[in-house]
Amino acid sequence: MSDANLTDAFRKRVEELHGSLSIPPDYIDSCCMPLQVEEVDLCDSGCDVFGREQRMTPHTFKCWESMQCAALADAIELLLVSAFRSLDYQYALFRKKLSKGQRLEDILKVNAAPGFSEHHTGCALDLTTVNVEPLTEEFENTRAFCWLQDHASDYNFYLSFPRENPFGIIYEPWHWACRK
């Protein structure tokens, strides 16, 4: 299947899932984030802080291992919270939040819609460190976050959702993506 056909098939699947979530039909074209096609070339990358097996692209894994080792050499422990998420996994996150009564517009400020999550690419990692509740802004007050700000780019990582980012996603000091 050509890249164009793969992208078209992915877009069609995203449209179907969005319809099921009551995301407006024009969201794909009006969203300020790019569509993120699911990566298929993934490698096992160990367990996250919850003991779940994680996967990421081989390039991201190599960069992650190098960055984690360098941080540890500076007495900083970087821990993985999550990596690759499939389109179906992202969809399930939305369904779960909607079933708990959360409003779609509020969910879209916290989670990228299915098809738009950087986690689909296998290049995005949610990180934490010891003694910090994962996925909280508290992470920005840690030595680990300061270390990432100073060194992550040396390992091809960047903070995807800084404060007041143009994507309308909340500030996520824990979410780092690897350049391909």
Task: Please give a structural write-up.
With 180 residues, the chain is of the alpha+beta class. It has a single domain (3-178), classed as 2-Layer Sandwich (Muramoyl-pentapeptide Carboxypeptidase, domain 2). Helix content is 38%, strand content 14%. It has 6 helices and 6 strands; from the N terminus they run ααββαβααβαββ. A 4-stranded antiparallel beta sheet has the order 3-4-6-5. It has a two-stranded antiparallel ribbon with strand order 1-2. The protein is globular.
Compile the SSE list and pairings:
Layout: H1 3-21, H2 27-30, E1 43-47, E2 53-56, H3 58-73, E3 79-82, H4 87-99, H5 104-110, E4 124-128, H6 143-151, E5 157-159, E6 175-178
Could you name the CATH topology? Answer: Muramoyl-pentapeptide Carboxypeptidase, domain 2
CATH class: Alpha Beta
Number of domains: 1
Strand order of the largest sheet: 3-4-6-5
- Overall number of strands: 6
What's the end-to-end separation, in Å? Answer: 22 Å
Quaternary form: single chain
The low-confidence runs, each spanning 5 or more residues with pLDDT under 50, are none
Largest sheet entry: 4 strands, antiparallel
Q: What's the mean pLDDT score?
A: 95
- Number of helical elements: 6
The CATH architecture would be 2-Layer Sandwich
Q: Which range best describes the helical content: under 10%, 10-25%, 25-40%, 40-55%, 55-70% or over 70%?
A: 25-40%
**Using only CA atoms, what is the Rg?**
16 Å
Structural class: alpha+beta
Portion in strands = 5-15%
What would the principal axes of the Cα set say about the shape?
A: globular
Q: Spell out the helices and strands N to C.
A: HHEEHEHHEHEE
